[in-house]
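hey m, so remember when u said the tokens were messed up on ur end? i reran from scratch. heres the input so u can diff it against urs
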Amino acid sequence: MCSKYRQKISDYLKLYLIFESDMLQIPLDDFVQQVVEGGVTAIQLRDKKLTSKERYENGLRIKDMLKDKDVMLSMNDRLDLSITLGIDVIHVGVKDIPPYVIKDLYPDMLAGYSCNNLDDIYTAEKSCVDYIGVGPAFETSTKDDLRPVIGPHGIGKLVGLTKIPAVAIGGIKLSNCEVLANIGVKGVAVSSELCRSKKPYEVAKKFREFFP
């Protein structure tokens, strides 16, 4: 696989949707259409509560819906699903397959890595990942194994230590997004604020005002 996203990865981080289908308030097809039209630039398939089969099926549907859209599609954690679906971007964390292993086995695949401290930044640099997610910015209920909240100030400090493009992650809502706009990140990763919205188009457009 050879990712088409490599040359402008920073642009795809402006509004990075972490997708959880069990949160949706409207049909999946309508949701994807609305968030893309509203300005989502990347969709990460997480779907932690689903079976592998269900995640595969959702992945097929969403990949098909994005085939003519300039939106980056990534897979959370699951290298096997990424390969099976032909998705050439994967995002991993400290408990997953190390990013340097992925890069060694699949050098053309783009890899993102979640960073919470200096050791994580070191791992990201050593692994030559393509982007990092830095946080958590705020408390969040969408992850069971939440790492220590480092806040906007902590995110800014870590982002300042690397040239790898970064997206802020963790508990980000419209009400707290503004403080993240000038700390060096390229954009924000959002889950529940978009997935649980009955009007995701409007919510996405408001988020993009912070990262046009």
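this time it looks ok to me. The two ends are 30 Å apart (CA to CA). if urs says something different then somethings off w ur setup not the seq
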